Amino acid sequence: MDRPIRVLVAKPGLDGHDRGAKVIARALRDAGMEVIYTGLRQTPEQIVEAAIQEDVDVVAMSILSGAHSHLLPKVVELLKTENVYDEILVIGGGVIPDDDIPELKEKGIAEVFTPGTPTQVTIDFIKSNLKKQA
């Protein structure tokens, strides 16, 4: 890839806490990626619109509110509707019960990172699983 990996870091839903999102955004930036942070309380529609406008390679969503089973698959569904899902890696993170992770993966979330995951694990996953290749 001739340019830095572009990552949209998003906080879907009504979450009011974004410390984790900011930590991952900084780690990705420090790893040489270009990071666009949407801020708090984004709808799936806003996230997909931003992903398309910014021509991102990755959508990384952080969620703590418990609405992950609805909001994360909704973003995947909208990316598919816009015909860009095949180009964008979608990952999630936050307080997500282990029992919910297989269903999220079935619905198109490539990986889910829970609290305590070293940021390097996320960085390595992104680099190894990009859908767009230059």
UniProtKB/TrEMBL annotation:
Q: Does the keyword tRNA processing apply?
A: no
**Assigned keywords, A-Z:** Cobalamin, Cobalt, Isomerase, Metal-binding
Q: Give the B12-binding domain ranges.
A: 4-134
- Superkingdom per UniProt: Bacteria
What EC number(s) is this enzyme filed under? 5.4.99.2
MF terms in GO: methylmalonyl-CoA mutase activity
By its UniProt entry, which InterPro entries does this protein fall under? Answer: Acid_CoA_mut_C, Cobalamin-bd, Cobalamin-bd_sf
Which cofactor is recorded for it? adenosylcob(III)alamin
PROSITE patterns named in the record: B12_BINDING (PS51332)
The protein, known as: Methylmalonyl-CoA mutase C-terminal domain/subunit
Q: Source taxonomy lineage?
A: Bacteria, Bacillati, Bacillota, Clostridia, Peptostreptococcales
